Amino acid sequence: MTTPIRIAVAGPRGNMGQEAVKLADRTEHFDLRAVIDSKNNGSRLKDMAGMPELDIPVYTDIHQCFQENEIDVLIDLTNPETGRKHLEAALVHGVAPVVGTTGFTEADIEKLSSEAEKKQVGVVIAPNFAIGAVLMMKFSKMAAAYMPDVEIMEMHHDRKLDAPSGTAIKTAELIKENREPHKQGHENETESLAGARGADIDGMKIHSVRLPGMVAHQQVMFGGAGQTLTIKHDSINRESFMPGVQLAVEYVVANKVLTYGLENIM
Ligand code: NAP
Q1: Model-level pTM?
Q2: Ligand 1 environment, Cβ below 6 A
Q3: 253 φ/ψ sector (left φ>0, alpha ψ -120 to 50, else beta)
Q4: Cβ contact 25:32 at 8 Å
Q5: Which of 71, 40, 72 is nearest to 58 (CA)?
Q6: Less Cβ around it within 10 Å: N or C end of the chain?
Q7: What element of type H or E holds 138?
């Protein structure tokens, strides 16, 4: 029998955190030991409204959590500001973080990557844990080699803090590997309303839609002479992200480097 992976989840009351708690509880070789919440310090998870009947401690101080519990992996599903602090704390305590929180910059990733290497701790940061979304990104990169005029439209629920989404940025980064930078649209194009043409990366455009009722959706639209190609992915609920989170938890305990993007561990 393999030794269970001891897990702490940060953000357990959140949409994603709730799913991660369920995943850690139901997976045979996972052992959910603690949660880190923005409030409810000192209570038990089972005493928090809407939480499963699990008798595990709740902390607001992540350092205290790591001092009082032996944790192998931290699953962070909070916000960028908290996520940064949690990542630093995890590296200090030798806990391997799996980060679904989005909004990290390239500079954040570079800094964390050298920290992780120095400390010999595995880190996985993935802006999208949905396996279908990773396939959408891979197919988009492939298509860009043949159809270099592309616009990305990402659509999310209206509680999302960052725009454009981490997935849209990651998609653009992958497309960049197969596309020469060039301005799209008419050379004399103007905007009579600022932002009408969206954000710009190397001349490709990214549009962000925020509406209640949505979860996480993206269309990558390519245009060529007399034809268009649309690659579309929809996460219709947060369960869609959990197989990717599980894969990342299993990976991060065995690989002592920072890995950015689920595509690198699939
Ligand atoms: P959410 O519902 O707003 O949940 C965030 C949770 O984090 C809330 O419960 C919040 O508590 C908690 N939190 C804030 N500060 C905290 C702290 N200091 N310590 C502990 N918990 C804290 O958001 P969500 O939809 O679950 O998304 C969470 C993150 O995952 C976001 O960055 C989102 O973009 C990202 N995301 C990633 C993926 C992926 O596949 N990688 C998919 C979907 C979402 P309060 O309510 O008390 O502030």
Answers
A1: 0.87
A2: 10-11, 13-17, 36-39, 77-79, 82, 100-103, 126-129, 159-160, 216, 241
A3: alpha
A4: yes
A5: 40
A6: N
A7: helix 131-144
